[in-house]
Write a structure and sequence with these properties.
This protein is of the alpha/beta class. The protein folds into two domains: 243 residues, 4-Layer Sandwich (Metallo-beta-lactamase, Chain A), CATH 3.60.15.10; 142 residues, Rossmann fold. The protein is 34% helix and 25% strand. The protein has 13 helices and 21 strands. The strands form five sheets. The chain has a seven-stranded mixed β-sheet with strand order 1-2-7-8-9-10-11. It has a five-stranded mixed β-sheet with strand order 12-13-14-15-16, with no helix packed on it. Strand 17, helix 8 and strand 18 form a beta-alpha-beta unit. Helix 5 packs across helix 9, helix 6 packs antiparallel against helix 7 and helix 8 crosses helix 13. 46% of the residues are buried.
Length: 395
C-alpha cells in the first residue's frame, strides 16, 4: 500500500525481500531491493514510474485501491528499463489514452521492449516543465547514460523533491522507506556497491550532471530514487558521495584477487597481504579468491582501493578462466587512478604473469614492474620478493 513521502506525494512500489540477483545474474543482492514508484495528487494526479513485470498486477491492484485509474492525468517514465516500466503495458490497457512524458530515447526503449502501441507519448528534455496545480510544477532533467541513454530525473517544485530514478539509489530493501530509518552501515555499503558496479563506467557523466543539477539552483529537500531508501535526512549527502566517487575514488586499501590450482598462488597472495601489513600498517588489506567470492562484492572493494594485486597460475599457456572472466568484468567498470601488481605459479611454460600484466594494463591500471612468478611451489626466495612488490605498489 502507499506510504507518505511528503504532503500529496506517496510511495507506491514493491519491496522485494526475496530478490537475489539483478541484470540477469550479473549483480548480486543480499539485502533485498525495491522498485519505487510515486503517486502525486495535486490538482493533477501524476504517476512516476511503475514496477518490475513480475509484480505488475499487484501494483495495479494497489493503485486501484488508492485512486480511480481514470483520475491519472499523466504518467512520467523516467527510464524505460523493465524494473521501472514492467507494469506499464498492463496499466495502459486500463487507461490507454493517458499521456506519457519521457525522453525521446525512452520511446525507443519502450517500443523496443514492448512493441509499438498507440500511446499518447510526449517527449521532454532538460528544462521542460508541466504544471500540476497548486502552484507546483514538474521540471525534467535528462540523465543520459545514468545509466541508459533514455534516463531522466523529475523535479517537483514546492515540495522540492527530486525523483532521481537510478541515480542515488541502492539495491536495498528498506521497509521503513527513508534513509534516516535504514541501517546506516548497510545503506552506505549498498549505495557504494550500486555505484561501483553499475554507474562507475559513467563517472565523467556523473560529475558533469551533478554540476548541471547544482547550477539549476533548485532547493532539494528529498531525493526519491527508484531503488532503495528515500533520502530525506540531509539528502545532499548522497550527492556529495557521488561527487567523490566520480572523481577517481580511492581509499588507503589494497585488494588482492586470485584463483589457484594447487594452492601455490594462494600462498603468494597471503604472503603479499602479510608484507602489506608490515610495509604499510595503516593500509586496509582484503584478500579474495575470485572463483569463490562474489564478484560484485570484490569490485566494490577494488573501487575503494588505491592498488590491487592479481594472481593466477599458468594453465594451458594462459591464466585461469575464473581470473580471465573477472578481469573482463573489471575492464567494463573503467576504474581509474589505481595501481596493479601481478603474481602466480607455473610448472612448465609460465605465461600467466605476463598475461596478467597485459590484461590489467588494458583494464586501465598502472601496472608496476615488480611481480612474483614461482616455479612449482613458492619458496622463501619467492616470498622474499613480496616486500619489494608491496613497496612499489603502495609508494
Amino acid at each position: 500500500m502507499k506510504q507518505l513521502v511528503k504532503n500529496n506525494v506517496h510511495w507506491l512500489g514493491y519491496i522485494d525481500w526475496e530478490l537475489e540477483s539483478f541484470h540477469g545474474d550479473d549483480y548480486s543482492i543480499y539485502n533485498g531491493s525495491s522498485q519505487n514508484a510515486y503517486l502525486i495528487q495535486e490538482e493533477k494526479t501524476v504517476l512516476i514510474d511503475t514496477v518490475w513485470a513480475p509484480h505488475r498486477f499487484e501494483f495495479i491492484d494497489n493503485l486501484k485501491k488508492e485512486i480511480d485509474l481514470n483520475e491519472i492525468d499523466f504518467i512520467v517514465v523516467n527510464h524505460g528499463e523493465v524494473d521501472h516500466s514492467g507494469a506499464l503495458v498492463d496499466l495502459m490497457k486500463e487507461i490507454p489514452d493517458t499521456p506519457i512524458y519521457c525522453t525521446a530515447n525512452a520511446i525507443k526503449s519502450l517500443e523496443g521492449q514492448y512493441g509499438k502501441h498507440d500511446w499518447n507519448m510526449n517527449v521532454v528534455k532538460t528544462g521542460d516543465s508541466v504544471d500540476i496545480g497548486n502552484g507546483k510544477q514538474l521540471i525534467f532533467v535528462e540523465m543520459r547514460m545514468l545509466h541508459w541513454p533514455d534516463s531522466m530525473a523529475t523535479y517537483m517544485t514546492g515540495d522540492n523533491i527530486l525523483f532521481s530514478n537510478d541515480a542515488f539509489g541502492q539495491h536495498f530493501a528498506v521497509e521503513e522507506l527513508f534513509n534516516d530509518r535504514a541501517d546506516q552501515c548497510l545503506l552506505e555499503k549498498e549505495a557504494m556497491k550500486y555505484y561501483a558496479n553499475i554507474l562507475n563506467p559513467f563517472s565523467p557523466l556523473v560529475a558533469r550532471k551533478i554540476e548541471e543539477i547544482v547550477a539549476l539552483n533548485l532547493p532539494i529537500d528529498i531525493i526519491a530514487p527508484s531503488h532503495g531508501a528515500i533520502w530525506r535526512d540531509n539528502p545532499m549527502q548522497i550527492v556529495e558521495k557521488y561527487a567523490a566517487w566520480a572523481n577517481n575514488y580511492q581509499e588507503d586499501q589494497l585488494t588482492i584477487v586470485y584463483d589457484t590450482m594447487w594452492e601455490g598462488t594462494t600462498k603468494i597472495a597471503h604472503k603479499i597481504a602479510e608484507a602489506a601489513r608490515e610495509v604499510s600498517p595503516e593500509t586496509v588489506v582484503k584478500v579474495f579468491n575470485c572463483a569463490k567470492a562474489d564478484k560484485n562484492e570484490i569490485m566494490t572493494e577494488v573501487f575503494k582501493s588505491r592498488a590491487v594485486a592479481v594472481g593466477s597460475p599458468t594453465n594451458g599457456n594462459d591464466i585461469l578462466s575464473s581470473v580471465d572472466g573477472w578481469i573482463h568484468f573489471l575492464k567494463t567498470l573503467k576504474f581509474k587512478n589505481k595501481k596493479a601488481a601481478t603474481f602466480g605459479c607455473y610448472g612448465w611454460s609460465g605465461e600467466s604473469v605476463k598475461i596478467l600484466k597485459e590484461s590489467m594494463a588494458d583494464a586501465g591500471f598502472e601496472v608496476i614492474e615488480e611481480s612474483i612468478s614461482s616455479l612449482w611451489n613458492p619458496d622463501e626466495e619467492d616470498f622474499s620478493q613480496a616486500k619489494a612488490l608491496v613497496e612499489s605498489l603502495l609508494k
